[in-house]
Design a protein that fits this description.
16 helices; alpha/beta; globular; six-stranded parallel beta sheet; binds GDP-alpha-D-glucose; eleven-stranded mixed beta sheet; Rossmann fold; 17 strands
Length: 456
Amino acid sequence: MPRLVVVSNRVAPITEGEAAAGGLAVGVLDALRRQGGIWFGWSGEIATGESEVQPDQTQGAITRATLSLSRRDYDDFYRGFANGTLWPTLHYQLGLSRYDRAEFAGYRRVNELFATSLAARLAPDDLVWAHDYHLLSLAEALRARGIANRIGLFLHTPFPAPQVLMTIPAHRELVRAMTCYDLLGFQTETDRLAFVDYVLREAGGESIDGHCLSVFGRCLRTEVYPIGVQVEEVRAQAVLPANRRHATRLRANLQDGPLILSVDRLDYSKGLRQRFIAFERFLLDYPSHRGRVTFMQIAPPSRGDIQTYREIRRELEGEAGRINGRFAEVDWMPLRYLNKGFPRDVLMPLYAEAQVGLVTPLRDGMNLVAKEYVAAQDPDDPGVLILSQFAGAARELTAALIVNPYDEPAMAAALDEGLRMSLTERRERHAAMLAVMRANSLDRWRDRFVDDLSRA
Ligand code: GDG
């Protein structure tokens, strides 16, 4: 079995049992343990001087190798091109995207820095698996250093329609760089086809059999790998008595009132403002729920040193206060807005406590919260998932109540429908979603990608 080299912007802790490992990290670590390998990326630290290699950490068959970034690299690469240009554009938020040539140069510079450090560690048979929009140029930089290994990229975000991508002046350089990978993995067929469309219509490429493309003198394969969750593990965490401290307190506090729950990184792509307005609409249009229902939004801050993220945070604080001010009673507060994160084992029981999981991103590569919410439910008395049509997860979870996150009255109606849904219908919808999630588990996502890469 070839050694696996995982490359991502951030590297999770590799010590077993260490907190904060999300589902994705666990999935990737399993493969690394089995095959042996390296997990390489940015340490999350900003160096006082230049970007520099940090000491390796090894645990069993896995080595964790990291770099710190200089302030300039962090600003140009991370805050700049990756999160100021790519992230909004990939999520169709063109009004929030900006382009700066120097930042794009910084993006390539950091991809080259990663490549230089990585190239020195690679053995000829190693499989290199890169993750996400931070590393679109990594394979190109590795090829320039004479690396002929199999290299694949899984894009966790959406890939937009060509006309949207082309608002980035450097779109051609980016796509050319992406074609240096042997395998490109996307969350959904829509994303894959958007990439193929660009290659065929804008870059003069050819399709060999629908999945293999010939372009810029290279051949590469494109495939769809919908990321999943560890279904049984989520439910086990949700019911473990030791994890249920917060959930029990919450339930006592809500008494018998129903709970609507949303959990998102505080990010404009997640549609929080539209969701708050939809909840207000719901209280206006369906007044019988007033005095009983609680909407809890958990939103851990994210990318707080980027201006657009500070703005959305301020805006949501205002909206939450306004809605509560308008509807609250002496003994009832409709909206609980928690601007903080919780440990994963505390979060899963909170999902299980909610009668409705409200997941309404404006665009999302997949959205794992939707899947975790379904996995955490009691199959005998499950809650209802309300899901945006623009989340990748909507392609699989067709038994959810699917909504348009820009249509506030329709979201309000879905909330009412969800809270009134019969047990029989809830069970049917939940069983259908669980079956799809078991078939497309996190293990399958990882194994299919690694198998395809090893055959590339
Ligand atoms: C990107 C793509 C794609 C959230 N709050 C807390 C917490 N979380 C965990 C959730 C979930 C994860 O973070 C979020 O995953 P999502 O998929 O919902 O969203 P992104 O962070 O934007 O992820 C996305 C994903 O990559 C995977 O490919 O689905 O489309 O944008 O697991 O549970 N975890 C803890 N405390 C919190 O407060 N511990």
